[in-house]
Amino acid sequence: MSDTAPPKWKLFLTIIPSAYLASLVIVLIIGAFLPGWPLLVTDGIVTVFLAFMLTYVGLPLSTRLLRSWLYPQEKRST
Fold first, then answer.
1. What pLDDT sits at residue 69?
2. What's the 3-state SS for the chain?
3. Structure confidence at residue 74 as a pLDDT band (50, 70, 90)
4. Where are the domains of the chain?
5. 20 vs 39: CA distance, rounded Å
6. Fewer beta carbons below 10 Å: N end or C end of the chain?
7. pLDDT (0 to 100) of residue 15
8. Rounded to whole angstroms, how far apart are CA atoms 33 and 28?
9. Using an 8 Å Cβ cutoff, are 62 and 15 in contact?
């Protein structure tokens, strides 16, 4: 991987699909299993699961799929 980080706008665009899909799934699951719970409790649960999903699933997958766009100067060694 390159020593230089991609521009922040590229990272921003990379995060959006992962965050959207993860939050959608989490909110649907939480809504199905915890209807009527207080907002602060459900929001806390959503936040914890969202952070977990983005850290371990969404962002690694997104950066792997978009590697050539995020790091165009990187030469692939095969």
1. 92
2. CCCCCCCHHHHHHHHHHHHHHHHHHHHHHHHHHCCCCCHHHHHHHHHHHHHHHHHHHHHHHHHHHCHHHHCCCCCCCC
3. low
4. 34-69
5. 19
6. C
7. 92
8. 9
9. yes
HSE-up of residue 35 (Cα within 13 Å, Cβ side):
1
Model pTM above 0.90: no
pLDDT, one tens digit per residue, over 32-71 is: 998 889 989 999 999 999 999 999 999 999 999 999 999 9
Residue type, 5: A
Structure tokens at 73: 């100067």
Question: How far, in Å, CA of 73 to CA of 3, rounded?
Answer: 11
The letter for the amino acid at 27 is V
**In the block, which residue shows the tokens 């706008």?**
9
